[in-house]
Amino acid sequence: MSGKHWGALAVFCGLLLTAIPSMAHHSVAAEYDFDKPVEFKGTLVQMEWINPHAMLHLEVTAADGSKTVWIFQTTGAGALRQKGLARAEQGGLAVGQTYTIAGFAAKNGKPMGFIKTLKMPDGRLITMWFGDPNGN
C-alpha cells in the first residue's frame, strides 16, 4: 500500500472516531444547583431504566391545577435494582403510584432535578446520593 493510501486510510479512521459519542461522565454539580432544593409529591408517569443514571418522570400538580412533568436523575439502574426498586410487584417503583421526591433543581431552569431522597407510597424513605442509594 502506498503512502497516499495510508494517509487516506488515516483520515478516514479519524473521521470515524469523531462520530463516536463521548462517554465521559459529568459532574452532578455542573447540571444541578445545590442552592435550589426542591420537593415534590406527584405521580410516576415513566421510569427509564438506563445507565449511567436512571430517570424518573414525576407528574406534579401545581396549586392552580396545572401539571408539569419533572424528570429526576437517580442512581444507576443497577443500584436501584439492588435496593429492590426494579420490580413494582415487589414494592419497587410503579407507574401510577404517588411518590415524594426531595432533591435539587437543574441550573438551566428546566423541570429537571437530581434526587436526594425518595419517599415511597408505603412510607419508606430511600436516600439516593451521588450513586449510593444508602447515602454513604
Brief write-up:
The chain is an alpha+beta fold and 136 residues long. Helices cover 19% and strands 38% of the residues.
Descriptive overview:
By secondary structure, the protein is of the alpha+beta class. The chain is built from 3 helices and 6 strands. A 5-stranded mixed beta barrel has the order 1-2-3-5-4. Strand 5 (112-119) and strand 6 (125-127) form a beta hairpin. It is elongated and about 70 Å long. The N and C termini lie far apart (57 Å).
List the helices and strands and how they pair.
Blueprint: H1 3-18, H2 28-31, E1 32-48, E2 55-61, E3 67-73, H3 77-82, E4 98-106, E5 112-119, E6 125-127
Parallel strand pairs: 3-5
Antiparallel strand pairs: 1-2, 1-4, 2-3, 4-5, 5-6
Compressed to H and E, one letter per element, the order equals HHEEEHEEE
The profile of the biggest β sheet is:
5 strands, mixed, barrel
- Average pLDDT works out at 82
Head-to-tail CA distance between termini: 57 Å
The proportion of strand residues reads 35-45%
Net shape:
elongated
Q: What is the count of DSSP helices, taking H or I runs of 4+ residues?
A: 3
- Rg (CA only): 20 Å
Task: Detail the poorly predicted runs.
Answer: 19-24, 131-136
Question: How much helical structure, as a percent, in the residues?
Answer: 10-25%
Strand order of the largest sheet: 1-2-3-5-4
How many DSSP-defined strands?
A: 6
Q: Which structural class do the helices and strands define? A: alpha+beta
